[in-house]
Design brief:
globular, Rossmann fold, 307 residues, alpha/beta
């Protein structure tokens, strides 16, 4: 733990030095309570954000085959730079928590309309239900709007789901995806890497919590690539990617490994690693200078992909 704290950027000290009971530890015992705690935390953070100025619509999209309809929330800022494109956004929360009513989705809507997906989560629904929901949204957006470009992205579990949905979309011969934006993506159900064994404070996302989440989300017979993208054998033909992570994140090594495998498969990939940054840093502490650099980099990557 001392090594983690010694390397931690001082601006993130407050988000690490919080008193228990810790939100993510609660997740191991009571998913419902953890969901409420996260929703309350996001609502508190939203009080300090500028109000969303634009159009916000909630509707349902038909699921694949016999699947239930998928709820989405669409955000469209008042002045959209690329109205002829679409960003499909997937929220984080360890595949167990979170909603489509997401602050990140709002922030990107000034670039292009953002369709934020309320995908099915564990423990009620195991993989590949979530990836199927995302593919249903990709299909319908492509068919109904014929956008010039479709970008898929997400943070944490949402980033992992974006990678898995890109794999499923390729397997299905689905619509072309122009780009995948993977923000500290949760890709590997095993975390058998040096960063995966890092001694991380319980106020952030730890190995024990993550393995518990995977045990509820991945298929009972073992994780497929549509649950954990790191399990994929073939990464050829996937859309270009941007992968960002902090160097004090449990997911660091698996994210770098996935980026390297994409590159070896001929997929253009940009990687951004931020020193002294724990999991979720740019969302939980957006005022920190490292967070500001990271968020600016994400936006630049999106702008470049949308041109």
């Amino acid at each position: 733990m001392s090594e983690f704290l010694d390397r931690l950027d001082p601006e993130f000290r407050e988000m690490i030095d919080v008193e228990g009971p810790y939100l993510f530890e609660v997740l191991k015992h009571d998913v419902g309570a953890a969901r409420k705690a996260l929703d309350d935390l996001v609502a508190e953070m939203a009080k300090y954000m500028p109000p969303f100025e634009g159009q916000k619509d909630e509707y349902h999209i038909p699921g694949l085959e016999d699947d239930a309809d998928v709820k989405v929330i669409e955000y469209r800022a008042r002045d959209v730079v690329y109205p002829d494109c679409a960003i499909i956004w997937l929220h984080g929360g360890g595949y167990l928590m979170g909603t489509a009513d997401d602050l990140s989705a709002q922030s990107f809507s000034s670039l292009a309309p953002v369709v934020s997906v309320d995908y099915r989560m564990a423990p009620e629904h195991r993989a590949p239900a979530a990836a199927r929901d995302v593919c249903a949204v990709i299909d319908r957006i492509a068919k109904n709007r014929k956008p010039r470009k479709i970008i898929i992205g997400g943070n944490s579990a949402g980033g992992g789901l974006a990678a898995s949905a890109a794999l499923m979309n390729r397997y299905r011969g689905g619509p072309e995806l122009a780009f995948q934006l993977l923000i500290y993506p949760m890709l590997d159900d095993q975390h058998d890497t040096p960063s995966g064994h890092m001694n991380i404070p319980p106020s952030t996302w730890t190995r024990d919590v993550s393995l518990h989440a995977w045990s509820l989300y991945a298929e009972e017979g073992g994780a497929s690539e549509y649950a954990a993208a790191a399990r994929a054998q073939n990464l050829h033909g996937l859309p270009p990617a941007y992968i960002m992570c902090g160097d004090l994140d449990l997911f660091l090594d698996e994210d770098i490994a996935y980026a390297n495998r994409l590159r070896e498969a001929g997929v253009p990939v940009e990687v951004a690693i931020y020193p002294g940054a724990p999991h979720g840093f740019n969302g939980f502490a957006p005022q920190a200078s490292v967070s500001q650099r990271a968020n600016a980099s994400i936006r630049l990557a999106l702008e470049h992909a949308l041109k």
